[in-house]
Amino acid sequence: MTNCKPCSTPVDTNPKLASDGPPVKDASSFHSLAGALQYLTFTRPDIAYAVQQVCLFMHDPRKPHLAALKQILRYIHDTLVLGLLLRPSSSAKLTVYSDIDWAGCSETRKSTSGFAVFLGDNLVSWSSKR
Q1: Which SS3 state, helix, strand or coil, does residue 31 take?
Q2: Are 75 and 37 in contact (CB under 8 A)?
Q3: Are 45 and 86 spatial neighbours (Cβ–Cβ below 8 Å)?
Q4: Which of 44, 54, 76, 103 is deepest in the core (most CB within 10 A)?
């Protein structure tokens, strides 16, 4: 899917996947791709929910599930620069930084917050909310 049309979200905005539709022709390819995407969630936590939803149907994959896998691939293709870079580190120290600004937005008076979690020198999780 190197020349696929990119998409801006890893999941379809329609309701959750169902167990209907025709079965996929090659279930082993479906299993292989879903398994590879599970490993990718270590460095791409943004796809974790979408991959988990597809993996619910590993026992009986259907064409809509394959289409969902392909959408995740199109999203990854469009967002290759995103992800966590993991490098060898001599430290296993867990460090967490957080920040919050109560009613920090001058227009809406909403709070803004964020955090970053490091394991050694590696960023393993982060969030920013407005």
Answers
A1: helix
A2: no
A3: no
A4: 54
Query: Dihedral of the CA atoms 98, 101, 102, 106 (nearest 10)?
Result: -160
Report CA-CA distances (Å) from 41 to 23, 44, 47, 52, 124. 26, 5, 6, 10, 11
Q: Over 56-108, what HEC string results? A: CCCCCCEHHHHHHHHHHHHHHHHCCCCCCCCCCCCCCCEEEEEEEECCCCCCC
> For residue 114, with 0-12 CB atoms within 10 Å meaning exposed, 13-18 middle and 19 or more buried, which class applies?
middle
Highest-confidence range of 13-17, 52-56, 83-87, 125-129, by mean pLDDT?
Answer: 52-56
3-state secondary structure (DSSP) of residue 127: strand
Q: Is pLDDT at 127 greater than 90 in this prediction?
A: no
Beta bridge partners of 122: 119
Phi, psi of 3 (to 5 degrees): -105, 25
Q: Are 61 and 24 in contact (CB under 8 A)?
A: yes
Report the percent of the chain where pLDDT is more than 70. Answer: 91
Is the model's pLDDT at 13 over the cut of 70?
A: no
